[in-house]
Each structure stands twice: as C-alpha cells, then as structure tokens.
Amino acid sequence: QVQVVESGGGLGQPGGSLRLSCVVSESVVRIYAMGWYRQAPGKQRELVARITRDDRITYADSGKGRFTISRDNAKNTVYLQMGSLKPEDTAVYYCTAFIFGTSPTWGQGTQVTISS
User: 111 has which bridge partners?
Assistant: First the structure.
C-alpha cells in the first residue's frame, strides 16, 4: 500500500518561511504527478502547487511568487518551500501522489499556522 507522509509544518511568522516535505513509499516510475493542497477551517481543500514527472509545474494564484515546489526523485520526496508567509496561509497542508493505475493517494496532512 502506498504511503504519503508530510512533515515540516508548524508555527511560522508573517513574512517568514517554512519548508514542507513529502515522502512517498512508491517508485517514482509509477508516479506521474505530485501535489500540495491545503484546507483552511471552513473552506474547501484547494490546490497549492503541483509538479508532474516531466517537471511541468502549476501554482495556485495564492502562492505564485511565494511558493516553490520541487522534487528529489532519489529520495522519493517532494518539497514545498513557502516564503513571505501570510496569516491566510494558515491551513492543513496535504501532499498527494498521482500514481498510474490507482486513485490519488493522500497524506494525513501537516498543520501550518502563521501568526505573530
């Protein structure tokens, strides 16, 4: 069974930075995309950033210019570098793996709270 595990959340300062990591227990050969999503209290889950196996990247408008998604295939890991953080970035951040032949696999999420 594929496992997706996020880490790196926590309390951040407005204007500061955080880096989230996501490790997938699956060969990168079967993964065609990885994505970061977030869900704030009372809101729907939304895309933050997504990267495909051929490095096509999509960012939500909310994170453009502030967030960077990247991956390390050797480590089966995807990162989300977040900068210029705002209180409205507060949410549970989820990583998901899009794998050939199966439904998307979600992690348990990591809480990010931006507050002074």
Answer: 92
Rounded to an integer, what is the distance from CA 2 to the centroid of its chain? 17
CA distances from 42 to 39, 68, 89, 94, 106 (A): 8, 26, 14, 16, 20
For the beta carbon of residue 72, count every other beta carbon within 10 angstroms.
12
Q: Are 114 and 14 in contact (CB under 8 A)?
A: yes
Q: Return the number of other C-beta atoms located less than 10 Å from residue 83's C-beta.
A: 14
Residue pair 40/91 in contact by the 8 Å Cβ criterion? yes
Cβ 59 vs Cβ 49: under 8 Å: yes
Residue-wise pLDDT tens digits, 26-63: 776 788 999 999 999 999 999 999 999 899 999 999 99
